[in-house]
Amino acid sequence: MIAVSTDYLSIIEALPPDAMTIFRNIAWDEYKSIVKALGTAPRFRMAYSNGALQIMTTSPKHERIKMLLGWLVLELAKASQQPFDSVGSATLMNDEVRKGTEPDDCYYLQNASQVIGKDIDLNVHPAPDLAIEVDLSSPSLKKFPIYAALGVTELWRYKRGRVKFYQLNVDDYEEISRSISFPFLSPDVITDHVRIGLDQGPMIMLRSFESWIKTNQPTA
């Protein structure tokens, strides 16, 4: 694996919260070296496609929204009593398509039984069933072709105070009115509960969401 230019790393590490920069003409092996050099630094999100490497940084507000969404997904998985696993913001990359990205969060639901207890490698394992993107300043829509190439079936995108759901359709995403993983769920319900979480705190949000699930989840 080739060495990483220290200039790239110094630029990346100096980025302020909620910032974004793009490096051009980055080779696939150099991208993988940058990923390795940065390790598990939680404030960076990287996306790579066709020689372009996009670096984004997070902020406390960004991370708060991400956590609220994650707790809602966990409540849904518990209520549905289905296998569940998450690799968080781990780098998702595939050598065959030479694309990679780091979601704000991602989950295995339908394919959880294939990956629980394993070190995820998208060259071997399926892609996550659901990925979450929180956009406060950097648009995740530019990352959609990467997710499509990796094979992520469903995306949730938070932007301007609202959540939208998207479904993979061949090589692109189309907006949908119900979740694939949780068909009784609309994006408006998630939007409303994220607002509760931001305004009143996660405990009140979770109590409200648990009540909503009991009322609206279809019985077997």
Topology overview:
Blueprint: H1 6-13, E1 20-23, H2 28-38, E2 44-49, E3 52-57, H3 60-80, E4 85-86, E5 92-94, E6 99-101, E7 105-108, E8 130-135, H4 144-150, E9 154-159, E10 162-169, E11 172-176, H5 187-200, H6 202-216
Parallel strand pairs: 8-9
Antiparallel strand pairs: 1-3, 2-3, 2-6, 4-7, 5-6, 7-8, 9-10, 10-11
Helix pairs in contact: 3-5, 3-6, 5-6
What are the salient characteristics of this protein?
single chain, 220 residues, alpha+beta, tt1808, chain A, six-stranded mixed beta sheet, five-stranded antiparallel beta sheet, 11 strands, globular
Which second-level CATH architecture applies? Alpha-Beta Complex
The proportion of strand residues reads 15-25%
Molecular shape: globular
Kindly give the count of domains: 1
User: Uncertain regions: pLDDT < 50 for 5+ in a row?
Assistant: none
What fraction, in percent, of the residue positions are helical? 25-40%
Q: How confident is the prediction overall: mean pLDDT? A: 91
Helix/strand/pairing class, anyone? alpha+beta
Q: Count the helices. How many?
A: 6
- What's the β-strand tally? 11
Strand order in the largest sheet: 4-7-8-9-10-11
Radius of gyration: 18 Å
- CATH homology group: tt1808, chain A
Describe the biggest sheet? 6 strands, mixed
Distance between the termini: 52 Å
CATH fold-level name: tt1808, chain A
The first-level CATH class name: Alpha Beta
